[in-house]
Amino acid sequence: MSKITKRFKTLLEKVDSSKDYVLDEAIATVKTLASAKFDETVEIALSLNVDPRHADQMVRGSVVLPAGTGKKVRVAVVAKDAKADEAKAAGADIVGAEDFIDEIAKGEINFDVLIATPNLMGVLGKVARTLGPKGLMPSPKTGTVTMDVAQAVSNAKSGQVNFRVDKQGNIHAGVGKVSFSKEKLSENLQTFVKAINRQKPASAKGRYIKSAALSLTMSPSLSLDVQELLDMK
After folding, report:
1. Distance of alpha carbon 95 from its chain centroid, rounded?
2. Region 70-94: what's the mean pLDDT?
3. Span of the secretion signal (predicted)?
4. Model confidence at 184: pLDDT above 80
């Protein structure tokens, strides 16, 4: 096991590992843990009582955080003609069709979000193996396969977070920066948790959220009061 650094040890002293924090107290505490030379991301991790091996228990979707993520997002759009013009007007960083897909096939991926019109999803299929593992393949569930490319670009630029449960039933997401006010972080976190609760599969049995934690990029994590999260509808 690697040796705990002096910096991390100091941070651990600020966290009560024996308690489950309510959200307001967790946000206030996590803001005292900032120790990096950059504006750290506030991250939430949730362990869900689902089995993603079953298609009807796959928790996946997207949500636009009211205060944004604090991260500059590069948005690419696969579209043609009028829809390509619409994407450019909405502020997309990259717009293209077959030529752009060829670039992706060569491994040129310099975007954070990819949006596509439904008519070009067939062509995009040939780079699915490149995009899929990186979580960049457009999907109707996250609103990234759509004819309304302008709205999709706007959502991505203004703080849309896509989430997908992993094989162990966990979801992890950045919900803002430590420099955000407590109010903005609270609003973002509640919006995110409500979106997760809305995605609860009908076939999921027992307590939907098993455990939850809040942390910064470079900090220890705080255990959250699960009941408070489950009550966020």
Report:
1. 23
2. 96
3. none
4. yes
